[in-house]
Amino acid sequence: MHMERFDQLEERINKTVEKVAKLTEENKELTHTNQQLQAKIQELENANSTLKEEAEKLHKLEKDGQIGESQKEISEKVKKMIQKLEIVESGLS
């Protein structure tokens, strides 16, 4: 009788150890994925910041009348890219 209970306990311990090992591995994978996503967020934030700075410069030049039509088109495209990046960033937050 005692041996049977001991065997049951041993089986429960073995299953628990297996689950802990599996969860530890999953945690490592999730941590790695999280780090990759954090790096991507930083990359997007940097790109967004750079595009905003360029858009501000273009907008100032545009106000000063120092840019031509093709540069105005570029300015509009940059503004649209910034909007898209902001949408992506808001989805990641």
Q: Please, what is the oligomeric state?
A: single chain
Which regions are unreliable across 5 or more consecutive residues at pLDDT < 50? none
Q: Write down the secondary-structure element order.
A: HH
Give the strand content.
under 5%
Overall shape? rod-shaped
- Main sheet makeup: none
The mean pLDDT is 85
Strand tally? 0
Query: How would you classify the helix and strand content by structural class?
Result: mainly alpha
* Fraction in helix: over 70%
Taken together, the total number of domains comes to 1
How far apart the termini lie comes to 57 Å
* Gyration radius, in Å: 28 Å
Tally of separate helices: 2
Task: Please give a structural write-up.
There is one protein chain. It contains two helices and no strands. The protein has one domain. The chain starts with a helix and ends with a helix. The chain has helices spanning 2-63, 69-92. It has 93 residues and is mainly α. The mean pLDDT is 85. Helix 1 (2-63) runs antiparallel to helix 2.
Give the SSE map.
Layout: H1 2-63, H2 69-92
Short description:
This protein has helices spanning 2-63, 69-92. 92% of the residues lie in helices and 0% in strands.
Core attributes:
single chain; 93 residues; mainly alpha
